[in-house]
Amino acid sequence: MDLQTFLQQFVNALSLGSLYALIAIGYTMVYGILRLINFAHGDIFMIGGYLAFYGVSIFVMPWWLSVCLAIVLTTAFGVVLERAAYRPLRDSPRISIMISAIGASFLIENLAIVLFDARPKAFPVPDLFGANYVIEGVHIAAVSLIIPVVTAVLLAILLWIVHRTRTGMAMRAVSTDVDAARLMAIDVDRIVSITFAIGSALAAIGGIMWALKYPRLEPLMGIMPGMKCFIAAVVGGIGSIAGAVLGGLLLGLIELMTIAFLPELTGYKDAFAFILLIVVLLVKPTGLLGKNQGEKV
Amino acid sequence: MGMTNIKSVSRNTWLTLCASLAGIILLFVIEENFDRFTMQIFKLCAINVILALSLNLINGFTGLFSLGHAGFMGIGAYTCALLAMTPAQKEANFILQPIVPWLLDVHLPFLPALLASGLVAGLLGWLLGVVAMRLRDDYLAIATLGFSEIIRVVLTNAQPITNGSLGLKGLPRYTTMWWAWGSAIVVTVFLVLLIKSSYGRAFKSIRDNEIASEAMGINVFGMKVLSFAISSFLAGIAGGLLAHYLTTIDPKQFFFLKTFDILLIVVLGGVGSITGSIIAAIAVTASMELLRFLDGPLNFGFMVTSGTPGLRMVFFSALLMIVVIFRQQGLMGTSEFSWDALARIGLLPRRKRSHRSNGKTGKERVE
Questions:
Q1: Residue A115 falls inside a structural domain
Q2: H or E stretch including B321?
Q3: Which residues pair with B249 in a beta bridge?
Q4: ipTM of predicted assembly, 2 dp
Q5: What is the pTM of this model?
Q6: What is the pLDDT of residues A107-121, one digit of tens each?
Q7: Is the Cβ pair A285, B328 closer than 8 Å?
Q8: Which of B157, B263, B264 sits opposite A267 (nearest CB)?
């Protein structure tokens, strides 16, 4: 393994890790507020990709318009999903709400197979993103540069919202203690909706960038990235935005570097994330940056 | 505890015997009179009964949300297939790379192979259970899902043992009507007895309140691991039956979405009800076939795999959502079938009240 290969893999890992990070943020925010694994998050990611595709291919929109519309519609979808599938069960046992999340994911996937067709579709990549640069023998696709930059910008905006606005303060309050937050006259339902909106918007952007990087759309494309990003969120410390970003980058790095160093393990790529998850859960269940929450009787 | 009680027990015993006899006759009639297509559906019903019961044991009775069933089924299916195939069949399958020598000459009859598939899956479940049962709630769910995926990835890549993604073809068609329903009935009886035993009561107490049951002197960790291992054992048996029912297996069939199919059955039937799981397994399997027309002419063949879902699966997943949101207890909640209950709702002649409820295996519901 020479420096050139290392740099090449590092560039790839950075863009993959940024994508993971973007999606992991959605998981971590929802979990932080509702203590719910939003199994359907990966499917929201898939819908984002498909909507952008249809905007360009059927409605012949310019790509930027299509992308903006896809983000808006996916955001709306995420909010509706929460209202329809999760809100009625908010006071039910945790297992019920998790089954509801699994059911929602199941339903969206099957609907997508019927509506979008199970055959994979080729995502039209605009020329701007399709470019490829070679620097010192390292191939860098334009997308690989754009993805980390977009992620960084979005992360900055998100951190500003969470830490500098009243809504963000309310979100942090709800995540710390729902009942106390309600007593402080915080509209919990509104905060949950906003959280889902932000998470879904990030998932949509992630989905579209994923489609630019791997231009192939399938109804079940969200499952694996979805699982991996949830794992990234757990590894980083669920509930912590910085942790989700760290976990996402770490997971991208581990996946690609292991393959680069030990090519014979390529077939096991999809298992790395799960092994990492189990190790982290056993050694440090709160994740790398998570806070320890005492067990309540 | 007087004469009435003895009388009621004997009445219930008679009813049970009659129902069992009727069930056996029914199996004969089906075997003799129905075409192969219908038979396949009946067999699949039995396999799904076992799967639903085993998932219900861990999720419903012990209250541990496990999503690892597809993996344990895969282990069972591969173990059973590799033990029961003849050396010639194995050689014909392994075209990329020869099978490992120690596995080539192993050739067992179906029953030992099936038991071995359960034991291997159960042993693995026990080992993984020791690791996973340190976690709780959604962390447990995601970790068991992780196990399932790791198993699938290993099955895909361990080419010299499992033939990798090519899978195994041409397995002997051992899973007859008698094997399928026989296993389902044995599993049902076993589970009814287990749930009524002190172990079953311990499982349920863990589900209801873990801390209280620990205070009562129950070895909570040990019981959780035991429940997980038994559940994995049963999933392995079902996997072995499934392998010799489909006669073709490959790792993709054991993707974790398969677990969600079983979860659908358990939730519809009622989390924590054996009767509910049995009824739902049969109803869902049968209606998956009846509703096949929804999938349109593109869909041919007779197998219910998660490989070619369409509108039909939309229907089932929508049904799951409706049940979860509007009727969380599913069909049966946590109640079970009994003759006394039938008498209470007026389907059997009423008799004097007895304090003893005679739980049934639920097999009678087959008819």
A1: yes
A2: helix B311-326
A3: B168
A4: 0.86
A5: 0.86
A6: 999 899 888 877 888
A7: no
A8: B157
Residue A18 lies in a domain: no
**In A15-148, which ranges are E strands?**
121-122, 132-135, 138-141
Query: From the list B139, B149, B257, which residue is nearest A281 (CB)?
Result: B139
**Integer Cα distance of B257 and B263 in angstroms:** 10
What is the domain count for chain A? 1
List pLDDT tens digits, range B332-366: 877 777 777 777 777 776 655 544 444 444 444 43
Best mutation target, A258, A274, A297, to test chain B (most B CBs within 10 A): A274
Where along chain B do its domains lie?
A: 35-256
* Closest residue in chain A to residue B313, using alpha carbons only: A110
The predicted-structure confidence for B82-98, as pLDDT tens digits, reads as follows: 998 888 888 888 877 77
Which CA distances in Å does B16 have to B4, B224, B350?
18, 32, 17
Pull the structure tokens for residue A275: 């092994």
- Write out the residue range of the structural domain in which residue A125 sits: 25-221
Q: Which residues of B247-270 are buried (b: 16+ CB within 10 A; e: fewer)?
A: eebbbbbbbbbbbbbbbbbbbbbb
Pick left, alpha or beta for residue A290 (phi over 0 → left; psi -120 to 50 → alpha; otherwise beta): beta
Q: Output the CA angle B148-B149-B153, nearest 5 degrees.
A: 120
* Contact by Cβ (8 Å): A204, A71: yes
Taking contacts as CB-CB distances below 8 angstroms, the residues of chain B near A36 are 138
